[in-house]
Amino acid sequence: SIYGGTRILFGRSFKRFGIAFDYVWDTDDDAEWDRAIRPNTKAIYTETIPNPRNDVTDLRRIAAVAARHRLPLVVDNTVGTPALIRPFEHGADIVVHSTTKFLTGHGAAVGGAVVDGGSFDWEAAERAGRAYPLITASPRPGLGSMLDRFGRGAYARAVREAVVNDIGPSLSPFNGFLLHQGMETLSLRMERHVDTSLAIAAWLEQQPEVESVDYAGLPSNELHDIAVRDYAGRTGSVFGVTVRGGIEGARACVDGLRVFSRMTGIGDTRSMVIHPLTSTHATFPDEINDRLGITPGLLRLSIGLEAVDDLQRDLRAGLDRVAALAAPAVSLAR
């Protein structure tokens, strides 16, 4: 699955630029890939750890598809972060991050990053019928192409000149400072984030008010083999939990929380919770949400740096409210 905000960006903002997207639901199905990839397809895009259901992707499998079709593989590693997985080592050509999240780590600076691995063969792609004129064509007589002038750094240079310079999504100096400060503690923070997430996910799985926990690091998860192979079982700190009682159960649970903040952000020092069906995925058709597993009882948790005991007590308070919904009414007569 792809993060809801990204799907909105693709389907609304990018659509205005004439850019279209096709989604592949079964990444193990070569025929579905072949149907989706067209002569004018420019790239394959995926995420390491999709949000909100922690359904980790098989990057090696997708990288093989991209290589076969001579397409660059773009990977969003916002939730995975370089502390847990380095997509270039699994076949990615370009990596993107929302630096607002884990890289900065405190939710106080908005930013993004594009990292060019310098590995994609743009000329071979063009010989295979793919067109990347921004990279390979001369912009004017007497001036070489980006590839001629910058070699392996051609894509990064093109992004800087044709996107950042022309459209303007540049980082302020102070936000850059906050990002730099945050990255210095990334590995330490991620260790705490994931240790706590593993403990909370395993605990939630045992609670009677919980229908399911979407965390690939759990042995019960259908993607656990990929989680162990690529992440040593440590699949981040953003995952889904489905409580009993549908949307009323989800509402009751959130209303009982005091430590978890009701926020749409992730990757903060603070733990956060949202209800995807009425927030990040509220504008999607029912059939899309059904395929994505966005159900009425699903909550997304982003586990922060608080103590495990404090988070468990808070979640227990929320789950007690879920239990109260199912408790039989008792009437007293005199």
From TrEMBL:
Where, per the database record, does this protein carry N6-(pyridoxal phosphate)lysine?
101
Per its record, what are the GO molecular function terms? cysteine synthase activity; O-acetylhomoserine aminocarboxypropyltransferase activity; pyridoxal phosphate binding
Q: Which Gene Ontology cellular component terms are annotated? A: cytoplasm
Domain of life, source organism? Bacteria
Q: What class does this enzyme belong to in the EC scheme?
A: transferase
Q: Which InterPro entries match?
A: Cys/Met-Metab_PyrdxlP-dep_enz, Cys_met_metab_PP, OAc-hSer/O-AcSer_sulfhydrylase, PyrdxlP-dep_Trfase, PyrdxlP-dep_Trfase_major, PyrdxlP-dep_Trfase_small
Q: Which cofactor does it need?
A: pyridoxal 5'-phosphate
Q: Transferase: present as a keyword of the record?
A: yes
E.C. code: 2.5.1.49
Asked if the Swiss-Prot or TrEMBL record annotates the protein with the keyword Transferase, the reply is yes
Q: Which UniProt keywords apply?
A: Pyridoxal phosphate, Transferase
* A Gene Ontology BP annotation from the UniProt entry: cysteine biosynthetic process from serine
Pfam families hit by this protein: Cys_Met_Meta_PP
Q: Which PANTHER family match?
A: HOMOCYSTEINE/CYSTEINE SYNTHASE, HOMOCYSTEINE_CYSTEINE SYNTHASE
The family annotation for this protein states: Belongs to the trans-sulfuration enzymes family.
Put simply, this protein is called O-acetylhomoserine aminocarboxypropyltransferase
Species per Swiss-Prot/TrEMBL record: Leucobacter chromiiresistens
